[in-house]
Amino acid sequence: MSDCLFCKIVAGKIPSKKVHEDEEVFVFHDIHPWAPVHFLMVPKVHVPSLAHAGPDHVGLLGRMMALAPKLALEQGCRPYPEGGFRVVVNTGAEGGQEVHHLHIHVMGGPRPWLKG
Ligand code: AMP
Ligand code: ZN
């Protein structure tokens, strides 16, 4: 999608602070963090939202969720159960989604946070 912000970030056309990249996933710091650790995990393919997920996306979504704890620890979240992190997928207008390329927010670190 040529006019999609996160597709442009994946393609390197818009700069980001990269956390991780592999064949199918790109991960970068949120530009307006809510918490001491706040990064976004996006599939490299353009999927508009979690509402568009179907059987074809089961493996991808599973791998993204399974990657989140490893990256959270690497980014400074303390281990479970004292530490931990929050995973959020805003979906659609009433779900608070502003960028229409599926993304998983991962937030953590010492409280208080700016939000939540
Ligand atoms: P959402 O409301 O779930 O669609 O969240 C979109 C998120 O993208 C927000 O938390 C924004 O701060 C973040 N964001 C917007 N533009 C950028 C950018 N250029 N680089 C990194 N994060 C961004
Ligand atoms: Zn996109």
Detailed description of the structure:
By secondary structure, the protein is an alpha+beta fold. It is built from 2 helices and 5 strands. It has helices at 5-10, 58-74, and strands at 18-21, 25-29, 37-43, 85-88, 104-108. A 5-stranded antiparallel beta sheet has the order 1-2-3-5-4, with helices on one face. The protein starts with a helix and ends in an 8-residue tail after the last strand. 23% of the residues are buried. Zinc ion (ZN) binds at residues 1, 4, 6-7, 46, 101.
What are the salient characteristics of this protein?
binds adenosine monophosphate; globular; 116 residues; binds zinc ion; five-stranded antiparallel beta sheet; 2 helices; 5 strands; alpha+beta
What does the secondary structure layout of this molecule look like, with pairings?
Layout: H1 5-10, E1 18-21, E2 25-29, E3 37-43, H2 58-74, E4 85-88, E5 104-108
Antiparallel strand pairs: 1-2, 2-3, 3-5, 4-5
This protein binds adenosine monophosphate (AMP) and zinc ion.
User: What is the β-strand count?
Assistant: 5
C-alpha-based Rg, rounded:
14 Å
Per DSSP, the total helix count is 2
- Structural category is alpha+beta
Mean pLDDT: 97
Low-confidence stretches: none
Question: Cofactors and ligands present?
Answer: adenosine monophosphate, zinc ion
The biggest beta sheet, please?
Answer: 5 strands, antiparallel
Order of helices and strands: HEEEHEE
What is the overall silhouette? globular
* End-to-end gap: 31 Å
Q: What is the beta-strand fraction?
A: 15-25%
How do the strands of the widest beta sheet line up side by side? 1-2-3-5-4
Fraction of residues in helix: 10-25%
